[in-house]
Amino acid sequence: MQLAIFDLDNTLIGGDSDHAWGEFLVARECVDGERFRSENDRFYRDYQRGELDIFAYLEFALEPLAQLSRGQLENLQQEFMEEVISEIWLPHAESLIARHRDAGHHIMIITATNRFVVEPIATRLGVDTLLATEPEEVAGRFTGRVAGEPCFQSGKVLRLQQWLAQNAQFERGEKWFYSDSINDLPLLQQVEHPVAVDPDQRLRREALERGWQVISLRDKSSAYVDALNL
Questions:
Q1: Which among 7, 68, 215, 223 has most CB atoms closer than 10 A?
Q2: Cα–Cα distance between 163 and 19 in angstroms, integer?
């Protein structure tokens, strides 16, 4: 059985949901605006350079989940989907997923962003499996800590390997992986069909040197999607 794996942020959607969620919390005055925005932007710049300290970032990013009630969070989550994610939705991403589904492939999103933020997005995209960074929960409340291995850089490889160990029917099948980010180089190197999607400068250079396909899901034309050989 074959597996189509997708990064989420700046790949299947036209922005970074993790950073946008932080901006959304600032706009809703759920956090200390000036401090939170400054740190949110700093961590995002580190991420773009491929220099993010994932554990320091998660300590920062998961803190609001622990400070707000589940009811507050669910209301904010719905508003975030309607007001923010809808504005960066990419129809060509849905078309690409549909092509893989029509080919009989299992659809997976693998993302460093925490499950609370991305699960509604994955649900809307209709994927089969979501591997995300897991925020710890105790007695139905978030603790502000991460549970298990963050789904970031080499952690994506580890999390996928763990999933494959439990889903052995996919181990020998061909695998596609679509990503925009140099942070995903470890996993891109592991699959039969690595594809750079609207890549950052460093990933574009790597993709061209390695002969990987480079596509855009933001281009108004569907030519990139139509040209893919699945």
A1: 7
A2: 27
CA atoms within 13 A on the CB side of 83: 13
In this predicted model, what pLDDT tens digit does every residue of 180-205 receive, in sequence order?
999 999 999 999 999 999 999 999 99
Catalytic residue list: 7, 9
Contacts of residues 132-139 at CB distance under 8 Å and 24 or more positions apart, as own/partner, are 133/58, 135/62, 135/65
Q: Distance between CA 224 and CA 197 in Å, rounded?
A: 10
Q: How far is CA 9 from CA 19, 130, 140, 184, 211, in A?
A: 10, 13, 27, 12, 23
215: which residues sit within 8 A by CB, 6+ positions away?
A: 178, 195, 196, 197, 198, 224, 225, 227, 228
CA–CA dist 127, 75 (Å, integer): 23
Q: Hey, what domains does the chain have and what are their CATH numbers? A: 3-227 (3.40.50.1000)
